[in-house]
Design brief:
This protein is mostly helical and about 170 residues long. The protein is built from 7 helices and no strands. The protein is flat and about 50 Å long.
């Protein structure tokens, strides 16, 4: 990701701050996207793909929480790689793989596609949690510093406004 070179260049405190700021911002975006997708997915999937796809709505909804886990997994794993802990950077992905395989075996025979989707989400959440915990073990950041705040939402709003202004100026 684009975070990797920036974190690799910075000193420890600055790289931890950048990583946590990136995670909080990406989490806000992921949660917002999940909310929109959950609100519209049950209508949009059958409307776009037809009534035959109505059965895919439930697995789609089960997949949504995995977006937050994937966000944590990618950001914290890349930050581990950049902060001279490359051996630890793959442990979050290994955790996701192990949890995913175990849950696939347990859930797919009983719940089919919804079980597979739930297993995938749980795997990404477990992998993201593992990567975050490993990053915390190497940096010592406080867990509450990883939680999005109103400042993160305001930052994203400013970024969006700036991007809109640039696109209007270019048009």
């Amino acid at each position: 990701t684009s975070l990797l070179p920036a974190v690799a260049r910075e000193q420890d405190v600055a790289s931890v701050d950048r990583t946590l700021r990136t995670f909080r911002s990406a989490s806000v975006l992921a949660i917002g996207t999940m909310a929109v997708a959950a609100s519209l997915g049950w209508i949009a999937i059958p409307a776009v793909f037809g009534a035959d796809f109505r059965g895919s709505v439930e697995p789609f909804l089960w997949l949504l929480p995995g977006a937050l886990g994937y966000t944590a997994l990618s950001i914290f794993s890349n930050s581990l790689l950049a902060s001279r802990a490359p051996g630890m950077s793959s442990l979050g992905s290994a955790t996701a793989l192990g949890v995913g395989l175990a849950l696939d075996v347990a859930l797919i025979p009983v719940f089919g596609a919804s079980g597979a989707a739930a297993a995938a989400s749980a795997a990404f959440l477990a992998g993201g949690a593992a990567a975050a915990a490993l990053y915390r073990s190497t940096t010592g950041f406080r867990w509450r510093d990883a939680l999005p705040t109103g400042e993160d939402v305001a930052f994203l709003r400013r970024v969006a406004e700036r991007a809109l202004r640039r696109s209007e100026e270019a048009a």
